[in-house]
Amino acid sequence: MSFEVFVGPLLAFALGAKFTMFLNSKSQTALSDLNARVEVVEQVSDIEEKRLAKLEETIEVIDKQTLSKMVSTMQPVATALKEIQAFVGLR
Questions:
Q1: Which residues contact 85 (CB under 8 A, 6 or more apart)?
Q2: Whole-model pTM?
Q3: How far is the C-alpha of 16 from the C-alpha of 78, rounded, in Å?
Q4: pLDDT for 1
Q5: CB 91 within 8 A of CB 82
Q6: What burial letters (b/e) apply to 48-63, b meaning 16+ CB within 10 Å?
Q7: How far apart are CA 88 and CA 61, in angstroms?
Q8: Handedness of CA 30, 36, 42, 47 (dihedral sign)
Q9: Rounded Cα–Cα distance for residues 40 and 52 (Å)
Q10: Vertex 17: Cα angle to 32 and 5 (nearest 5)
Q11: One-character DSSP codes across 64-90
Q12: What are phi and psi of 2, to 5 degrees?
């Protein structure tokens, strides 16, 4: 039998195995880069969640202050309106 019958398949197997190992290492590198990016996105997401929570707390405080300011502003107007109605005789 000829020499090429044995050497050809062995050489093809060796080249295929080497190519598979190369692709595997390349995909592992890409996977580690992807994991690093996912960690960065998770950190940014956590920061944004904290900022959103702080903003919601600030909005609640502003709402409470606005309500109290509105009541304190409207109280003299309501008192004056009652006096006017009593003077005119509507009540």
A1: 91
A2: 0.51
A3: 90
A4: 64
A5: yes
A6: eeeeeeeeeeeeeeee
A7: 41
A8: negative
A9: 18
A10: 170
A11: HHHHHHHHHHHHHHHHHHHHHHHHHT-
A12: -90, 155
Give the C-alpha separation, 81 to 91, whole Å: 11
Q: What is the pLDDT of residues 1-42, one digit of tens each?
A: 677 888 888 999 999 999 999 999 999 999 999 999 999 999
DSSP per-residue string spanning 2-23: -HHHHHHHHHHHHHHHHHHHHH
Q: What is the pLDDT of residues 40-56, one digit of tens each?
A: 999 999 999 999 999 99
| Rounded distance between C-alpha atoms, residue 30 and residue 16, angstroms | 21
Token duo for residue 76: 């003299």
